[in-house]
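Hi support team,

I submitted a single chain yesterday and got back a structure, but I'm not sure I'm reading the token output correctly. Could someone confirm the output below corresponds to the sequence I sent? I've pasted both exactly as they appear in my results page.

Thanks,
R.
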Amino acid sequence: MDNLGQEVKRVLNESMSPQSTLTELERQQVRRKIRSSNVRIKKKVDLFPKILTGLAMSAFFILIGAFIGNQYGGPIENISGSSSHKTEAIDHKSVYENMSDGEVLNGWTLKNDYATDGAKTTQSGLRTAYFVGRTTVEGKVIFYDEKDIKNPSRMVFYPSQKSLKALPIEEGTSEEIVFSFEQQQQLESILGMMPGTEKEVKMLVNQYTAYYKSGSDIPDVISFLKIMQPGEKESITTDHLFTINDDLQFVLPSHLQNIYETLLVKTKNNSLKDLTPYEVFQLYWYAEEQKDYDKQYALFIDDPDQIPVFASLEDYLEAANKSINQYYQKDMMERIKHRTKDNPLREELIDETHANIIINEEEGIGFGLVKNQEGIWKVKWLPLQ
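Hi R., thanks for writing in. Yes, this is the structure output for that exact sequence:
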């Protein structure tokens, strides 16, 4: 363990100054060092079911808490990674210099709320610019092996010339774009890629972060919502607003109110059969506000091949009634209630069996649903994404 500590300390000292913030590239370097260490961690095999249940409860609601915590940091820290190959020939002041918060570049909106110009500068001289948007891009992903000098153990996306024009990229920047550590892991699984291979991809993307530091060569980071199949069209979306009354409480349409009254745990709940993903979403959050956690539990996916996070209603009730979890859920309800016509909830039909309700596109907050074996839309375990 001492060797591991010394190795991590060395990497940190090499990759950042005392006043700098870690870029996504630097985070990946540290993670790779940790993973490649020879330290062996002993595993305990006598885990008790109650401990596992407790961990599942924590994971379920901690994920909700993570979204709340994001609002207290700058948007750059909340996205899935870091940024743009600005070459040494580009001057420090030329990075999105003529753009300010809310302005649009190639269909992407700049969201540096606290910046005086296009890019925010940290004390270390690192400049960052965070954009939100939505478009489909195509190109090649190359998975470099650990021996590559420039991109060791890293996936790099090279967009097509057409796709470059659809991204918030200024003239003179490199065409190399990377992914966050977490999204690279997803890509490895989705694409089945191994180091030393490459593959043509089509992606639906929604976040882009550009980094620049004078004398440094730092890649842009892109965040994808979905990897699309060849010939696949972009998902269908519909905008919605949740009705609230004068007391700022959720109101269900009459047909959903009737269905809500009949919801029972451990029944087929056939009344849900003709509902849309958004209508199931409405039932879930109405039940949350009413603290009807038994009805809420009945909305989760219950197919035999699905492993529930909470094996029983009792486990779910225990977790849901904890004050910290109620705080997180209340905050999420406030986000839902404060959607407007200009910034509505968005129902996204990803394919025939998967859907997502986008609560806040800028922060990447969505609520996942999936069709069960009987063709009924149900809430995913760990629905907040």
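A quick pointer for reading it: Residues 8-52, 62-94 have pLDDT under 50 and may be disordered. Let us know if anything else looks off.

Best,
Support desk
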